[in-house]
Amino acid sequence: MRVAVYAIRQGQRWKMKTSLDLRIDIVWWEYMCRNAGIDGTMVLLSGDMPLGWACKVVKDFVGAPEMVYWKMQQWKGWLEAELREEMEREQTGIGRSRPGMNGWTSVDGEKQDARTKGSLRGMKDRGRGVWNSFEPKDHDGAAWGGLKSKGNDRSIQDEFKAKGHDRAARGGLRTKGYDWASKDGIKSKGNDRAVRNGLNPKGNDGSARDGFNTKGNDRKVGDNCSGMWRWGLGEPLPPAVWQELMRQPEEGQWAGDVRDPAVLGELAEQAGQLVDRLRGRSLLAAEVDSLLSDRAPGLASAWHSAAQLAYLQGQLALDAGVATASPRKGPRGALRAGRGQAPRCRRCGSDATGRTACAACGLAACAYCEACLALGRSRACSLLLRTAANPAVRGTAGESTAAVAGRWGLSAAQGDAAWAALGFLAEPPEGGSAAGGRTGWMRPRWGAAQRSGTSTAPSRFLLWAVTGAGKTEMIFPLLDSVLAVGGRVLVATPRRDVVLELAPRLAKAFSGVRIVTLYGGSAERWESGALTLATTHQLMRFYHAFDLVVIDELDAFPYHNDPMLAYAAQHACKPDGKFVYLSATPPRPLQREVSRGTLPHAKVPVRYHGHPLPVPKRIAMRSVETCLRQPKLLGPLAAELRRSIDRGAQIFLFVSRIRHIGPLVEILRRRFKDIAVEGTSSEDSGRGEKVMAFRKKDICLLVTTTILERGVTVPRSDVYILDADSSLFDEASLVQMAGRAGRSSEDPAGRVIFASSQWTLSQKLAVSQIKAMNRIAGKHGYLKEQPFKS
Question: Which portions of the chain have biased composition (kind: Basic and acidic residues) (predicted)?
Fold first, then answer.
């Protein structure tokens, strides 16, 4: 995508902008300055620049009062200096690119004819032609309809509100104290006349479509600055500006005369509708096309113009999918970003290290992100659209622990934790350490945080509940607290099967609430609801959308140790919203924050049935690899397994390597001929059927990997972990696997065996955590009896 870039001055303040439809900007700024009574200047630097370059120009721009006196050559020199690194990289990219027989190979592997729109063109003289490809035929106004820029899209820097028009509304274009556009006409300060035949600049009421009045505007543009122009707002329109207004609309742009008040009113309505459709979302242009085609076909054909207007109104942010890092801040203001620093994906936060020839923007080295390819290609020239967030709502605190527990059928431990979390939701947002780590991109754009001049991130709360404690039931009061005051809630889980399992339970608990379920291939991906249940990867399509975000199984794959998903979750929540983490085994950094008292939390140290957690017992045993070569060494394990078989238990036998499953199953089948022994792993296409047979007791002993460490509850289970000293088994994995035992009230004393040749730190920490939870449960009177010993 290629866009227009211009500088705009209002009074003494300069800003840099990019545009999807320059006609909208011309009309907007003319009336903004006229109605505000402020003089201004608009300087077009390029009508056709690659989006990624344009966004860099906007981000790095620092206005200065002396710019009002700059000649076009000075603007051109400034632009070349700003883009020097990009042009050098582009020359390197061209040198390394290999053209095919009839054109360049695009990002998608398609051949592009160099003569077609979007081809690699104008890259002479260190890239100068990239922004000079917008060439008017002449300057006498004869070619109103013949001036077309190559490329049909525009983009805008990621900012929401412009000073002086923060009261923009969906019903029309509004300036301070004035209705800027309506179906009835355009009203300017002190002038109620409807102007339907074109702009009526100050001092030039005779302007018409059949000619130009260039009085007082005879500035010349040098040969080396073709395609650039300067216009004093409020002065008669120069020929180049008129040509821009008169040109034929491009794909995605409004086909009518944007100066017509009736057209402006309709366009304003469409801008409001577009913002409503995109509310709380972060979508690339291709995804917007898909959403509008599916949900709002009437907006699909010309949404670029509506998006441009919504941006100028302060309701929509437009940016590049991949952008260079923001300049570093020093004691004297902004500093230039480091040379060679990799751009970052604005959707997932990952470094975008890939570069390739691109037909969409015409560059030979267009950056793209490989981390989030599954959701569509995010590139430096991909338009990314985001809406502004309204201030987050605050949940209501519970009356008492007993009231919360009684209404939702919770145990005493569950009720205490839910009541503490409700108190957290009712608190005002706070920054500081409780807000969590943030990058320079995670700044609030709208709402209370911006109005107060503070910078906040969503506050966080940890529900640390042991395995089998009933975490899902505990979050019901939290969801209800926010939904009751009109808020939006997101529950994110790591796996699709968990989404499908939770959906009917949430639908039953919140029968009157619109619930949307999102996962790969979901038919509801463009639906909106008060309660959204989604896999963690789907969060990348949201931006400042939710008042409350609940992350289930925070420590589980794929969320654990994936900064991309953490970035997506951070951005899905409103800046002054709230996070609630659910975990039985929080990552060590969170545990340290709990110990230091910097992370609000509540512990649920006991299961719903009130019995203590089984404490693991260790048996000394050689490695599985050795035992497979010498089966007699399995003697100590066989003795323990016989005890479990004799008491009628279902046996989970965890191993660290998939390759160990088959040989071990054969040995155990020969040793225990009276029971059914099977094995399964992530590579087993029949895993679901085997787990179902295990639940039904058709299989007694199941050899498996950590694929079954979560989400599987089988009554009357015993757990054996072989090679418990393996580096693949950390503290969290050991606690999760041990948590498969003792989950039912009929058999709360399940057995847990750590079989290993060494007693490692991970095993010690896992046992210590389980014992600590039992002690806390006993201290608070949650236990019905003393802890069991395996």
Answer: 108-128, 182-195
